[in-house]
Request: fold
Amino acid sequence: MYNFKIYEYLTEYSKNIREKVFVEEQKFQNEFDDKEDSSLHFVLFDDDKAVGTARMFTEDNGKTYRIGRIAVLKEYRGEHLGSKLVNAACEKAKEFGAEKCFISAQCRVKGFYNSLGFKEFGEEYLDEYCPHISMEKEL
Reply:
């Protein structure tokens, strides 16, 4: 059974998942940044094993929350856990009074975010070597 925990700091759970997914698998080099300490970190557990993570923070006093660093361990993909993480973050943002959520999405998965109600805007851009697109969802 899956359950969430939300932390006000970067846990080893989140750090380990993000290193496996973004650094080892996808070869990103600049995974951790100055937003870690001002973010809420969601961790999804399968019993006591951390299997997915996401983070969110605001830069405009709570009108918009940026959701990012959404990662699910390879062996747990295909079980809609990414949807659970994104939806949980959007619900939390809504609880905080946010009007919308924003995601900087890898272009290869923008269809996934479209299916969750996000719409792309602006031009594609590179984050390190990887094409991304800005996406937002009204809450």
